[in-house]
Predict the 3D structure of the following.
Amino acid sequence: MLDLLLITLTLIILVIILFLILRFSRKVEKVSIDQETVKGALATCWKELGLDQDIGAIKQRADDIQKATQNLEDLFKVTRGRAAYGEFQLEQILRDLLPQKYVHIREKLPKIGKIPDAYIKTPKGIICIDSKFPLDNYRKMVEAKDEAQRETFARNFCSDVKGHIEKIKTDYVKPQEGTTNFAFAFIPSEAVYQYLTECEMTLVTDAAKEGVLLVSPATLAINLNLIAVGLQAMEISEKAEKIQKNLGKLSAALREVEDAWNTLYIYIKNAYNKAGEVNEKHDRLKLTFEQITQIEETSEK
């Protein structure tokens, strides 16, 4: 981007210099500058500044971008390629926003037996996500130049979307079999999502009532952030419960230690009291023994 800006400024400066030379040549009759001389000077400046190489590189980059754009357009024209791109985009969003232990990509649902493009395992149930959104008639609608054809393709597109919504509802919205009461229909294009929310809002709201939430990459990211917060809160709650249980066990162990200490203290106290009694008796017995010894020594004298 900086190189392009410098080249643009250089070209502007060259044009200004050329303009001044031509204007000055008209005023000064003695100075004669022919067209070939001007072209030669410009060519020399162009080559010395390396602008010919820079322009060539820019043209090559532009061709590369055009080829890449064409390849992407071809990808979206093929249903299988478009589906693969939607699955790839969905997987990247899920990997970026949710812990891997909750994310399952193209795995069979335990009870239902279906294989969604992805699902999220939560304490409230399994959230299924489908990314195979029908876009053929939308592309034809956008490319159509005739208004009547555009309206026909628009009706066909809405019909495709309704059928897709019904399929997602039938396959993946089964609370009695372990799923949540809703599923996500992932639209890998913000433009398509914007068209539906602006021109077919009734279809979007009806789908939500049926338990199918239409989401674009941006709105899916918002929903996943909310889910991530809920999962984190659940983990914190589970950890708090474990800590509370461990504290209960520790409290019970402390009570047992306290009871054992109280029993030991009673024994120690009783032993101390008995030791005092024995010490007193020993002192009295010792005094008596000394008195008897003194009496005997006195009688012998």
